[in-house]
Amino acid sequence: MRLLPLGVFLLCQNNFFGSFGVAATQCRLKSPGKVLANVPATPPSNPSNGVGTPQSSTVPPSSSIPPSFSSNPGSAAPTPSPAPDFVYGNDKIRGVNLGGWLVLEPWITPSVFESTNNDAIVDEYTLGQYLDTKTALDILQRHWETWITEEDFVAIKAAGLNHVRIPLGYWSVPLTSADTDGPTHVDPYIPGGWPYLVKALGWAKKHSIRVIIDIHGAPGSQNGYDNSGHRTSNPQWADNPANVSRTVDTLRFITKSIGDMVDVIELLNEPAGFRGGGFSQTVRQFWSDGYDAVREAGDAGIKVMIGDAFLGVQNWNGFLAYPRAQGVLMDFHEYQIFSDLELDRSFDEHVKFACNYWDSLSAYESSNIWTIIGEWSNAVTDCAKWLNGRGVGSRWDGTWYSSANSQYHGSCTNFTGSYAGFSGSYKAFLRKYWEVQVEVGENISGWVFWTWKAENADEWSYQKGLEGGWIPHDPTDRKYPGICS
Ligand SMILES: *[C@@H]1O[C@H](CO)[C@@H](O)[C@H](O)[C@H]1NC(C)=O
Ligand SMILES: *[C@@H]1O[C@H](CO)[C@@H](O)[C@H](O)[C@H]1NC(C)=O
Ligand SMILES: CC(=O)N[C@H]1CO[C@H](CO)[C@@H](O)[C@@H]1O
């Protein structure tokens, strides 16, 4: 998930200290709030990408190609059984992210971080850096074995969902020197997650859940967030062509080795397109090269997902559209909590804001590529412990970086943690907020909630939402039909 969303463009003037000394020069470039509509369009780098070629309606190629489950001798994966028909561009993606599993996030599993007794361990990178390998591997293996199990796939299926999105760090992908001209070491990361992923792909097939594999952490970090594996004010992914080409090699490897077990390969999560220094141009070239790598290495039925890189979907008009490409999806993320401007919204205004961004997403999709909201949540505060990073407080209650001119929005009590403390009116709102975002997602190609589980932040947990009653067991249930009309 993003810790510095579109609102970053506002915030940087209020200080972007701590570990996030980023984007300071971007403040004046983007206006928040209306980013979707206001970001000036960059001309497509490939003029042959025709804008106005609606892939989803008039062009059959992507949806007419059946999903492939061809056997792959290089794969250790169990024999798949075909999922029921799902037609991309026609059927709606209804999914959850398996966040905090193969890429650790302090706020999703604070206990994993607390167990290290070291405050300097703030992400998976520092976990590998500051613990000896055996200790780190023990902690990680226990986590990999327990955080997501087959029971989760059973429960996800029972909740009427049809997709999971699985964030994956490059360090978990066992590239060998036969797979890349570049380095294959992953220091200081601890490798070992791959077999757990492969096992989960078997559960997904068994329980007819489709899988979006998402490179969530790239070499050098594509955004500097802890959820990229490495929290840093100086993410270097785009600075070094070797980092980028290693990421392409990683995609090729994934496609070859497990492509027959996954439905969608998302090339990279949330590259920080708002950074200067050619970052956004690097992202654009990488989407193109990554797409080609997946197409060369795998079956044409595999879908490829790109993201808006925080630039607004309109920035990608005509990009990787048919006929240059086929079977491509756009991933848009939305959280309304990472700036004072957003936190100032009332419950009703949050709902309204969600209704309002549909137009631009829908307009983009209808003349470009299938579009989903691949991350969103029920949170309306940033109160979840360590959501902004281990040891970092919340903007909501003014405990974010002390140097920032924090604005107090309210107490965090009973907005996060266990839903035992949630008031009836808060839970009623959570239902409404869930529903409006589902409605908006279903007016395009679908939605993937962030996240399935969190140790101690029930407003972010689909599982707890089902249990606590604000998320229905049938995602087509509506308490608020026509909520945006
Ligand atoms: C928070 O929830 C707990 C548990 O239900 C309750 O006892 C407490 O009064 C609540 N606090 C506030 C400030 O509402
Ligand atoms: C979905 O689209 C329909 C028209 O196609 C529109 O009436 C409705 O308001 C839209 N819903 C949302 C949530 O945007
Ligand atoms: C993992 C990896 O190879 N990272 C490299 C990314 O780019 C930076 C900047 O050039 C290098 O220092 C890293 O080694």
UniProtKB/TrEMBL annotation:
Example of a GO MF term: beta-glucosidase activity
Reading the lineage from the top rank, the first entry is: Eukaryota
Cross-referenced Pfam families:
Cellulase
| A single Gene Ontology CC term | extracellular region
Keywords assigned by UniProt, alphabetized: Glycosidase, Hydrolase, Signal
One GO process term, biological-process aspect:
glucan catabolic process
Q: Which residues form the Glycoside hydrolase family domain?
A: 141-379
Biased composition regions of type Low complexity, renumbered to the chain: 54-78
Q: Which residues form the signal peptide?
A: 1-19
Entry-linked PANTHER family: GLUCAN ENDO-1,6-BETA-GLUCOSIDASE B (PTHR31297), GLYCOSIDE HYDROLASE FAMILY 5 DOMAIN-CONTAINING PROTEIN (PTHR31297:SF42)
Family, similarity comment: Belongs to the glycosyl hydrolase 5 (cellulase A) family.
Q: What is this protein called?
A: Glucan 1,3-beta-glucosidase
List the taxonomic lineage.
Eukaryota, Fungi, Dikarya, Basidiomycota, Agaricomycotina
